[in-house]
Amino acid sequence: MANIKQINCKSCGAAIDLQPGVFEYACQYCGTKNSIIDPNETKEQLPQAPEKLILITRDAQQNFHNFVLQTMAFDMNAPDDMVEKSEINEELVYYVPCYFMSGSVKADWTASFGYDRQEPYTDYESYTDSKGRTRTRPVTRYRTVTDWRPASGKASGRLFTQAYAGEPLPSFVETSLNHMRGDFADYSPTMVTGCEVKPFIRTVDDVHQTIAAQIDAQIQNIVYSYAQGDHQRDWSYNPDVTVDYIKPGLLPLAKASFTYHEKKYDIYASATSQDLYYKDDFPVDHKRKNKVSRGFVPFYITLIYSIFFGFLFSDYSGYFNFILILMGLACPLLLGITRSATVNSYSKKVRAAALAQRNLNQDAQLKTQEQIQALYQQSQKPPMPFFAKDGADDILLPLLTFLWLGFSLAGFAYHLITH
């Protein structure tokens, strides 16, 4: 190519002077673009159409909608009103491109297998005889010994893998797509009618490393399935891989986007099993977390005072002292645990009620009277337990703090009086 100084325009035939490092030229006479490199010869082309696909399951759209609401409702750190106040902007079940690889492997392997056995040995223990003298006597004990034996054999098995080939997605989503399983079928345009199909962005060469890594892992699993004994080591194998085909295909994916307090959140899931692939970090209900934390304040205060007086009177002793201090610590700790369980349980019930209310408002005409009645009962917001109320913090927590602190300090006061 370096010896070529000039080409002719493929449209009008005019001469075009070449420049180093430039591979496309527009003709100055007719404007036609001329390339000096044939893309078909220099770069693998993207597939024109898929040949295989994993089918979207029936009712995938409705199942995914329910899955999105449940994901919002049962995230333990999310605010209680997120289900109620979130606006779902997009719920899409669609196909994304991939490459399917099918093949087989044969491998000769060698390894060492270890077999455990119990081996007796003689040990000596001390004892006191009838005259109070210390003596030793032999005893039989057992220890586990592993006998290693060399082994070899032939392994064989089927290989099947896939690699995502579309526009960049969160890494965990792409990894999950590479391991998706479902109903496998030959592609037909009628199978994707009404579904959005994303275009191929990557060639087979682009995903070669992904396919190779999955094949290596599958080969290892096939070879290791021939393991024997209780332990294995020194594995060595030389695989011979036969590739039946690498074909372009489609994978089903579900994505939802919703807005909560003007911030957008995304959820990705399988369109075949509703397995969660990825979700943005949901907002954290700091008010609820602080409420739980305040329940442990009496324990922390009592613990600090107990440690302080423990160092101050390090020589105190007595069963009564110990019981008083233990009560002073155990009671506020139990309060904190109870408070935490009560607050979180109430939060879960509130979010479940919000979920039922949202389901009740959606497609009510498609539900039976029994379903509507059940959802109505589930949507009733439960009363807030006493331990979950903020008002309890103003009176109950300070009162119990001083009460249990008194138990703890009573032990040290008893020590001062009796010593």
Account of the protein in words:
With 419 residues, the protein is an alpha+beta fold. The chain folds into 3 domains: 6-42, no CATH class; 52-279, no CATH class; 286-418. It contains 10 helices and 11 strands. The chain has helices spanning 39-42, 60-73, 82-85, 171-178, 208-224, 286-294, 297-312, 319-361, 369-378, 391-418; strands spanning 6-8, 15-17, 24-26, 33-35, 52-54, 87-128, 134-164, 184-186, 231-260, 263-270, 276-279. The strands form 3 sheets. Strands 5, 6, 7, 8, 9, 10 and 11 form a 7-stranded mixed beta sheet that branches. The protein has a two-stranded antiparallel ribbon with strand order 1-2. A hairpin with a 2-residue loop joins strand 9 and strand 10 (263-270). Helix 6 packs antiparallel against helix 8 and helix 7 packs parallel to helix 10. The radius of gyration is 36 Å and the shape is flat. 21% of the residues are buried. Mean pLDDT is 83; it is low at 37-43.
Give the helix/strand layout.
Elements: E1 6-8, E2 15-17, E3 24-26, E4 33-35, H1 39-42, E5 52-54, H2 60-73, H3 82-85, E6 87-128, E7 134-164, H4 171-178, E8 184-186, H5 208-224, E9 231-260, E10 263-270, E11 276-279, H6 286-294, H7 297-312, H8 319-361, H9 369-378, H10 391-418
Parallel strand pairs: 5-9
Antiparallel strand pairs: 1-2, 3-4, 5-8, 6-7, 6-9, 9-10, 10-11
Helix pairs in contact: 6-8, 7-8, 7-10, 8-9, 8-10
User: What is the mean pLDDT?
Assistant: 83
- Helical segment tally? 10
Order of helices and strands: EEEEHEHHEEHEHEEEHHHHH
Q: Sheet with the most strands?
A: 7 strands, mixed
Radius of gyration: 36 Å
Q: How many β-strand stretches?
A: 11
Q: Which class of secondary structure composition applies to the elements?
A: alpha+beta
Report helical residue fraction. Answer: 25-40%
End-to-end C-alpha gap: 103 Å
Strand content: 25-35%
Structural domain tally: 3
